[in-house]
């Protein structure tokens, strides 16, 4: 309980001499005696103006709890400590909020990069599918040319008077070489090697055709 002296407005503590007057109001002993001496013969209570004399002043005795008055500076220190903690908590919250916004921006950047990578992967997959289809088309054409060569060789006349055409094989080699280069640049080295194998087969077929034309026979088949 915090009780103050009306005259000096200070709190009573366990070291204070506390007195009361007939009306029941309490004061510091030193304060009330100075009050009485500063007035005339009839003194009045500083609070309710009830008249009293020095003989009416009674000393009071209180049993204060240990360290009861020491709670005031302790409470002040506690308040200061709590204020410091509150200030630090506010700073921590602002720092956390700033970091949260930075993480949001970082995550947005990662999501944008991932989206770009997914789009690039889809484009690469489409290009790979197109290359595989193109390679398959070239393989089918190669097989078709091989069958046509066989058919043409069997359909050739057996007259030896038909002149050989030595330039045909050279032109065919040039065409096949261009096809191999195109497939290698478009579909990669692995597919290019396969096309080289197909082209070698076609070259052998063309050489046999040239020999057959020169000799007028298909005895090699």
TrEMBL record:
List keywords of the entry alphabetically. Answer: Metal-binding, Zinc, Zinc-finger
**Could you confirm whether the keyword Glycoprotein appears in this record?**
no
Q: Which PROSITE patterns match?
A: ZF_RING_2
**Gene3D superfamilies from the UniProt entry:** Zinc/RING finger domain, C3HC4 (zinc finger)
GO biological process terms, semicolon-separated = protein ubiquitination; replication fork processing
The GO terms this record gives for MF are:
ubiquitin protein ligase activity; zinc ion binding
Q: Which GO terms describe its cellular component?
A: nucleus; site of DNA damage
Return the protein name: RING-type domain-containing protein
